[in-house]
Amino acid sequence: METINYKRVYVWELPVRIFHWINAISITVLAVTGFIIANPPALLSSAEASDSFWLGTVRFIHFMTAYIFFFNLILRIYWSFVGNQFASWRSFFPFSRKSWRNFLHVLKVDILLRHKKHPEITDLSVGHNSVAGLSYFILFLLALVQIFTGFGLYSDMSDWWLPDLFDWVVPLFGSDFMVRKIHHISTWLFILFVLIHLYLVFYHDWLDGRGEVSSMFGGYKFVVGQRVKQKKTEPEQENTKETS
After folding, report:
1. Domains of the chain, first to last
2. Residue-wise DSSP of 91-126
3. 94 or 50: which carries more pLDDT confidence?
4. Which of 131, 148, 160, 175 would be 106's cystine partner, CB 3.0–4.6 Å?
């Protein structure tokens, strides 16, 4: 069996990994608390209703997590301009000929399940592949929908200037009902994305064996040697090790 030369490459910087996990936790908390707010269960308690403020606590957790989600996204946008090439905003726009070639290749592997017979030739991505990059861009737009509709609904209950910036959203759509409906549908789209994302991450981790899952913890991926550029920055040179 032919041995392929792999290099251990530092791909995901610490701010990107922090963003990823804060985002994952925030989406989970927002979805769970959002469904409870939309359809609160009837909790039986011997205490008086005035002494039981559990739904208020759920709403508080939902609103605080929304702020975390919002500012976390702002920091990720900032890092897309100052981070390395794998964190750059350019990686989310697969419009070059090479990117489209990678896009079609990934679709063949993920949808048609055509295993790569020559990884040294067909391994076209180090960071996000073109399909992932485009899907994350769509997810970013979906996050904006959630932020605008969520803060739009919250603006009437808040005295802070930030939510008040979105007080035009409800009048734009005509009613709270329509904005809540959009917010609710977007939540289900987030859940659908998460399910597909988890499947593909573990699928590629098993199929490629390049550390797809562990890379979001430690930052390193194993890349076919031919894919690593000869000219690297000094930090990349220090963090790149050859393996077989």
Report:
1. 15-120+129-205 (1.20.950.20)
2. GG---SHHHHHHHHHHHHHHTS----S-HHHH---S
3. 94
4. 131
